[in-house]
Amino acid sequence: MNADQLRALQAPIKQQYRDDPSSARVVMHASGTVQPSQLTCLVDTSLGQVSAGLHPAAGGSGAHACSGDMLLQALVACSGVTLSAVATAMAIEIRSANITAQAEMDFRGTLGIDKSVPIGITSLSLEFEFDSPADDAQLKKLVELTERYCVVLQTLAQPAALSSNFKRVI
């Protein structure tokens, strides 16, 4: 796809959102089924179910997907798709690109060993590696715009309002 094709693809969508801003609001869903006896959760995806379990650092076997790894995978996926779209819009040729996400966390927090240790990821980094004829200034701008428009990255950087509730099934 080239920049003109991308613009043509997105033009009617952008116009619809300008004409009817409420049509741009989309509700996304995810669901899963908890399997308490196995300490796992079957997460529904468009490609089937993924069995998520404890990270080995929290006692998991490593045989199941780890939700922390899945978060990083979502960040890499969103960054990659966004990078492709931005590079196309900027007419920057990318022969190949790799994205690596790395996160650090201290499992003493999530295991309740030390209440002063934060629960969750405390540092996160992305590394972009390119094979491209573009100059460094263009690639720097490409990465900046990818970061700006990547939904997952922006959600991590500026957390969304979060709520939870429960209902009893009879």
Backbone shape: globular
Which band does the percent of strand residues land in?
Answer: 15-25%
The counted number of beta strands is 6
**Sheet bearing the most strands, described?**
4 strands, mixed
Average pLDDT, rounded to a whole number, is 95
Rg computed from alpha carbons, rounded to a whole number of angstroms: 20 Å
Structural class: alpha+beta
Q: Helicity range of the residues?
A: 25-40%
Q: What's the number of helices?
A: 5
Provide the low-confidence segments as ranges: none
Q: What multimeric state do the chains show?
A: single chain
- Largest sheet, spatial ordering of strands: 1-2-3-4
Separation of the first and last Cα atoms: 51 Å
Q: Would you list the SSEs in sequence order as H and E? A: HEEEEHEHEHH
Structure description:
With 170 residues, this protein is α+β, with helices and mostly antiparallel strands. It has 5 helices and 6 strands; from the N terminus they run αββββαβαβαα. A hairpin with a 2-residue loop joins strand 2 (40-45) and strand 3.
